[in-house]
């Protein structure tokens, strides 16, 4: 499956293998059966932003959870339903588009204590490998870059189904999640609580709620 944003026509060349090593042309292991219906999904897809969310959640003051999302991003995803190992993705997020529902908090997040958006405007994810784990579950490994620091992450990607909508568009749904330690990307700002613990958790859960429409180009 390929997801391309409406702002960008081609982030990934579907003829170019992901990563820098030799292409992995092997099919899924015999013990992990692929649904034949996946083959019909092979190709490029475009994110429907109106029905998608690139978001995150983090514990605040040890007692509650703050949630936010990024409104401005470009992305590309190519899905190979017969050989999932050849599927690949790229996501480029403008961190200044963060929205947690509180303007003052958003200004702090994009400031020097966290993303420092003026110096590092983009956060990127580029996949390096994909594997089928059974059913509609896939594991995508890739390089996440924040503040010019690149580290590997593992994304759990679940296929939710596909449908032909009333407007004639072929639509597919996916949920993706991963948890990172923000300090590994230089997002180390914090305040300690008198009762113990931190004001902002170091663990961040990234969430990708994707509604994709098959690309006609």
Topology (SSEs and partners):
Blueprint: E1 43-47, E2 53-60, E3 64-70, E4 73-79, E5 88-94, E6 98-99, H1 103-109, E7 122-134, E8 137-146, E9 149-164, E10 170-181, E11 200-214
Biggest beta sheet summary:
8 strands, antiparallel, barrel
- Quaternary state reads single chain
* Mean pLDDT over the full residue set: 83
Low-confidence stretches: 1-31
User: How far is the first residue's CA from the last residue's CA?
Assistant: 13 Å
Count of helical regions: 1
Please state the overall shape, judged from the principal axes of the Cα atoms. Answer: elongated
Reading the helices and strands in chain order gives: EEEEEEHEEEEE
Structural overview:
There is one protein chain. The chain is mostly beta strands and 217 residues long. It is 3% helix and 47% strand. The chain has one helix and eleven strands, in the order ββββββαβββββ. It has one helix at residues 103-109; strands at 43-47, 53-60, 64-70, 73-79, 88-94, 98-99, 122-134, 137-146, 149-164, 170-181, 200-214. The chain has an eight-stranded antiparallel barrel with strand order 1-4-5-7-8-9-10-11. The longest helix is centred in the middle third of the chain and has 7 residues, at 103-109. It is elongated, with a radius of gyration of 18 Å. It starts with 42 loop residues before the first strand and ends with a strand.
